[in-house]
Amino acid sequence: MLNPTVRCWNTRSVNMTRNRSVKIAITNQKGGVGKTTTAINLATSLAGRGKKVLMIDADPQGNASTGVGIGRADREISVHDVLLSDATLTAAAMSTSLANLSVVSAKPDLSSIDIDLGSQRDRFLRLKRAIDSDSGGDYDYILIDCPPSLNLLTVNALTAADQVIVPLQCEFFALEGLSQLLGSIREIRNSVNPDLKILGVLLTMFDTRNRLSDQVAQDVRANLGALVLKTVIPRNVRLSEAPSHGLPGVIYDPRSSGSIAYQKLADEVLHSTQTRDHQRG
């Protein structure tokens, strides 16, 4: 579970103008579930539909940045600067070769953020404040790629987000640890972010040749019901190859089964978020 000190925050004391962007955290404390692949390809697919998208790379490994062609030498202002030095998102956002897609990159120094922020009282709110105070972005969607752990970076992402996508690998022990993550999301909702919703659990790395994948998918849907997104991401070699070329899979090979699935995911996300916006209105 999260550090209990997160409960000390009362949302009524956080007086900030709410950013109009749809903010989606993509998170799972387990590694290797397709989290960064999902962030990259969903962001690119939304941008390809004419939406202005900002992807925030909140993982010290910086793979989301690399996956859209942002080299390490080019990352002058990073998420670390936004969280620690009050750099604005506008200053940190880097354009990519992909139309409508910008990135706030990550560098290895982000791994020390828990120590750098220490016991500062607003340490859980740094990313939210950066997003809510930014007036130069005007993004339709902000996607946050979280690290594979329930640490301060993930708490910042969940505090800043409207919705959460949880990638879940179609393999044995898929549900292991999920209850802890869902509990953490409830804790964030009850303490600092009452508007946080689960957009859906995304089944990833589905292997059509393996009966286990089908069984896992059935078990997940039986346990989680409507929380599970309709789109299923297959295990796909072309998606795995794409990052080495600095390209999202949907650009590297748009006809691959993985790319087609992420295009369907973008449509599902658009439908879900637009429906919720309409219901709120």
Brief sketch in words of this structure:
By secondary structure, this protein is α/β, with parallel strands linked by helices.
Give the integer mean of the pLDDT values: 89
Q: What's the SSE pattern?
A: EHEHHHEEHHEHEHEHEHHH
Termini separation (Å)?
A: 34 Å
Rg result:
18 Å
Q: Tell me about the biggest sheet?
A: 8 strands, mixed
Shape: globular
Kindly state the percentage of residues in helix. Answer: 25-40%
Low-confidence stretches: 3-17
Could you give the order of strands across the largest sheet?
3-4-2-5-1-6-7-8
Strand content: 15-25%
Number of strands: 8
Count of separate DSSP helical elements: 12
Helix/sheet category: alpha/beta
Protein topology:
Layout (H helix, E strand, L loop, with lengths): L21 E5 L8 H14 L4 E5 L5 H4 L12 H6 L4 H4 L1 E2 L5 E4 L8 H5 L8 H8 L7 E5 L6 H9 L2 E7 L8 H14 L5 E10 L4 H14 L3 E7 L2 H5 L7 H4 L4 H24 L1
Helix pairs in contact: 1-12, 6-7
Textual characterization of the structure:
There is one protein chain. This protein is an alpha/beta fold and about 280 residues long. The chain is built from 12 helices and 8 strands. Strands 3-4-2-5-1-6-7-8 form an 8-stranded mixed sheet, sandwiched between helices. Helix 1 packs across helix 12 and helix 6 packs parallel to helix 7. The relative contact order is 0.19. The N terminus is likely disordered.
